[in-house]
């Protein structure tokens, strides 16, 4: 089952002293929310400012303050620095945000968590949505593992 308010990375406690929470600062970047995600949660959303209300059926938002346990943390933030990427042939891949300094080893548990969350979200509709969206500052790193692909 998709966990609405997860995605904390243990290694961030130390790393954030030097990275300064780059993931939570916005210039030309933004958070994407899949179609229905904003409406679906009953958690607080006061910290989320909508900057595009219909982004291929979803939304683009930014954070105006840091979020706390009672606030909704969008799946994009829960997944960071990872996010799915879908190419024009419908191949699902993993992309990573390049401004995050965490290493592959520091991200091992988080990656598992990310894959499990998305395994339940990757419906045909969401795959189509991912095809259209554009994330700033990401690069594609590898294929999506078959064992986490529940959408066939
Ligand atoms: S940029 Fe990376 S290391 Fe820094 S707080 Fe965000 S997720 Fe953690």
Q: Total helix count? A: 5
Task: Evaluate the radius of gyration.
Answer: 15 Å
Kindly report the spatial arrangement of strands forming the biggest sheet: 1-3-2
Number of domains: 1
Structural class label: alpha+beta
Number of strands: 6
Please trace the helix and strand order, writing H or E for each element. HEHEEHEEHHE
Q: Give the overall average pLDDT.
A: 92
Bound molecules: iron/sulfur cluster
How would you characterize the largest beta sheet? 3 strands, antiparallel
Q: What percent of residues are in strands? A: 15-25%
Shape: globular
Q: What is the straight-line distance between the termini?
A: 18 Å
Would you identify the regions where 5 or more consecutive residues have pLDDT less than 50?
none
Fraction of helical residues: 25-40%
């Amino acid at each position: 089952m998709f966990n609405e308010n997860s995605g904390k990375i243990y290694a961030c406690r130390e790393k954030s002293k030097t990275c300064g929470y780059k993931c939570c600062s916005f210039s030309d970047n933004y958070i994407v929310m899949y179609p229905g995600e904003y409406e679906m949660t009953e958690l607080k959303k006061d910290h989320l400012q909508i900057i595009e209300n219909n982004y291929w059926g979803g939304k683009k938002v930014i954070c105006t303050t840091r979020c706390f346990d009672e606030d909704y943390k969008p799946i994009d933030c829960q997944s960071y620095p990872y996010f799915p990427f879908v190419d024009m042939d419908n191949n699902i891949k993993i992309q990573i945000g390049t401004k995050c300094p965490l290493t592959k080893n520091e991200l091992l548990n988080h990656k598992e968590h990310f894959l499990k969350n998305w395994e339940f979200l990757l419906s045909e509709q969401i795959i189509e949505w991912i095809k259209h969206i554009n994330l700033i500052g990401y690069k594609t790193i590898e294929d999506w593992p078959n064992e986490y692909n529940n959408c066939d």
